[in-house]
Amino acid sequence: MDEMTLAVVGLDHPNSDKARSNRRYDALLCVPGEPVELRPEPDNPHDPHAVAVFGARGVQIGYLTAERAPWIGARIRAGEAAVALFQGMGGNAAFVRIRFGGDAPTLPPAAPRSQIAVAEYADPDGPEWGA
Known about the structure:
By secondary structure, this protein is of the alpha+beta class. About 15% of the residues lie in helices and about 30% in strands. Strands 1-4-3-2-5-6 form a 6-stranded antiparallel beta barrel.
């Protein structure tokens, strides 16, 4: 199976469209499992291997990392069928899941969200508070 998770970086750079759309905002609107589009940008003035990532609403959310973009972009330009889905957010990056061969990738199970215990944030009782 030719399937992998890829980081999407550059979320804090504004897009060059007229609206100067916000990449991070649009990435936060993405739902795990939504389709994303990978677009090689051979005319990109900063990196001819760049691969832009567009969310389901057609707004660019960032780029694949410079380490992975040349390989992924070359495969897409060679005509390999690639299907990509939004996987989630983490830190300063978004993540997409891609599968070559035309079938949809499988998303790994979502990590359980830790629940913050109220006691961790409760103010300590004390006589100065009149408790």
